[in-house]
TrEMBL record:
The lineage of its organism: Bacteria, Bacillati, Actinomycetota, Actinomycetes, Kitasatosporales. It is found in: Cell membrane. Belongs to the binding-protein-dependent transport system permease family. Its main location: membrane. Keywords: Cell membrane, Membrane, Transmembrane, Transmembrane helix, Transport. This is Sugar ABC transporter permease. Residues 109-324 form the ABC transmembrane type-1 domain.
Amino acid sequence: MSLPLISPASGGGSPSPGTAGRGVSPGGGPRGGLRGRPRGGGTRGARSPLGALFVTPYALFLVVVFAVPLGYTVWMSFHRFYFTAPGTEVDAPWVGLRNYQDVFTDPVVLRSFLNIAVFLVINIPLTVVLSLVLASALNSRVPLRSFFRAAYYLPYITASVALVAVWGYLFGTDGLLNHLLGGLAPDPSWLVNSVLAMPVVAVFVTWTNLGFFVMLYLAALQSVPRELYEAAGVDGAGRVRTFMAVTVPGVRHATTLVTVLAVIKGSNLFTEPYLLTGGGGPDHASASPVLILYQKGIEQAHPDFAAALGVVLVLVVVTLSLIARRLTERKGA
């Protein structure tokens, strides 16, 4: 007997965490309708002022820290803008789409987006697969489970400078890996090779963030009903079949979260190429859009160009995140 694809939301007779306790009528609507509301004439609107009071500080924080700077950045991207001394006023004439034209015709910017595409193609599959496999292993009864959980999480909370020093020792021209490979070592070496620099950065970021994503999957695995694994065992499914039929669909929402976070973190790459490859080298082979944004806006004093690049990057990140969410949740719809 073959094991059908099992979804925690539909199989095993056990309610999924998202539907537990709600109660669904045969027609698909909430059971009880208006009768399900609390007694005493209370409504959702009557309970909302206290909730709104708690939410207001964070809403104001979002407006001040994100919405206002984003709106100002959009305004800068359509003007010729200069950094000036405090108290000095300089005209910022309207230039329309000229800053965006400069962004899309700059070969360094185009190369940085290509680098990010290479980075995401390597980083996202590695992150999702390794995180889920390791979380599944750590969710079972294995010796030294607590030690391994802490060990995988340690790079995530370690300072990037210290981690970069370790990888510089491993992948440097006179590094340990080249000594082990001998004549098989790449020439030029890993971090100064225009082909290998970005893949090395992608693997480095995967390793440093792996512990965080393993924790996300571990939390998601706690919500997969144990009865589904028991049913798979009764059905004669092996470990691989159980993993593909129970675990993978059971943590699909976590996979969506992991993928979207990986896209956001990868698209905002800055520290790793700045430290690991000396500012995006060699010859911009590992440069990222955020690194170019910093160089153009701060080091070269072109904030209007940097603002236009920032707006383009936001649109790219939002688009990629929506695509990733659509792809990862398509089967669960």
